[in-house]
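Sample 3 of the quickstart, ligand EPU:
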Amino acid sequence: MDIFSIEGPTRLAGKVKVNGSKNSSLPIMAAALLAPGKTVLKGVPRLSDIAVLENLLSTLGPKVERLENGDIIIDATVVDNPVGEYDIVRKMRASVCILGPLLARCGRVEVSMPGGCAIGDRPVDIHLRGLAELGAKISLKNGNIVATAPQGGLVGKDIFLGGPFGATVLGTDNVMMAAVLAKGTTVIEMAACEPEVADLANFLNAMGAKIRGIGSPRLTIEGVKQLHGIEYTVISDRIEAGTFMVGAAITGGEVELDNCALGDMMAVVDRLRNCGVCVENNNGGCIVTRTGEIKAADITTQPYPGFPTDLQAQFMAMLALAEGNSIITEKIFPDRFMHVAELNRMAANLRKEGASVVVAGVKKLIAAPIMASDLRASAALVLAALAAEGTTVINRVYHIDRGYEKIEEKLNAIGAKIMRQAI
Ligand code: EPU
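Result:
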């Protein structure tokens, strides 16, 4: 198991290139199952979550290969084992995104039901409800979801896909991937509008699907008979970008981000500017600078285009050092606060009240041994450690490797002092 030793405080200054999006790549790789033939994916980051899905896809029949130039080739000519095994699926909840494409391609799918998760209860009831609306029969057998399409295949329908916390990203993906090969027209009302969902829809259309309303809460999908393999580049990772932006802000630095879609990050940019951070557009990227104090700001996470839950922890680390008090409220995953206790170990002053955290700004953070608990919480701890006085040791950094490619190398190249050690 690896640990990070992070010496602080440091100031980040320089240029970093943002990777392709993890949360676009995962469903897009799964969608490659829909097209008999070869799909070439460009820009897919080298992450442990991606490796889990590569492995899972190859157990279903396709040949999956990562070339030296980074391209992933998925040859889905054969998909003959539509069974997502527990031993692989349990490593990553997003494995559930094979449900829709396998059901559409094979007429039957069995996938281990995802279990609990550090960021809270994450049911898949809405995914299943949507697939059932398309005609699938769904049951639970020995901890596995078993879904079977009717004799003549899935049939398009008008489906309302909202839940208690709004739209669902992977739920929308699953129903959309199943509907592209269904007979007739499907309308998904209250579809998730996240850029990653739009990226998947654009990918499916490039493969021959007919999806309209991309990026809006109403998707209209006319079923087609067959899709074909294509070459496609995934969009840039707005959460990795946001993490580096907070890195610049929390260290009083100046960071230029390359390959960053600022137009997909308006809520994030708005909050940064509110905190006194300067964010400027710069040819397909941006420059983020902070010179004055960090100002307190209230943040509420919401479905896109609202503020993303995947940047809540990182902003909390930054606001811990703000002048004044902030309130951060989680409206997507009300229990996603595992980082609160760890940040308090670093002398932050955070008080959790239900689904909110009151952040009383402190003058400085102080290094401590701390524990990563989930992907974005770990990113927040790394950011806090960059600004803290002393050497912070972060345990269980495998959580961060799930979603950030070589984060220590990227940060060290712009002034951080992070050492990875195997223990
Ligand atoms: N929900 C239900 N029932 C469902 C599905 C979701 O009640 O059947 C609830 C969830 O419990 C949550 C809300 O709906 O309260 C939204 O969850 P959503 O389904 O949108 O989450 P997801 O699709 O499982 C994706 C990202 C997450 C990101 C969320 C929210 C991927 C692979 N994962 O998860 O990313 O936090 O959307 O934006 O795309 C991460 O990258 O660190 C991460 C956790």
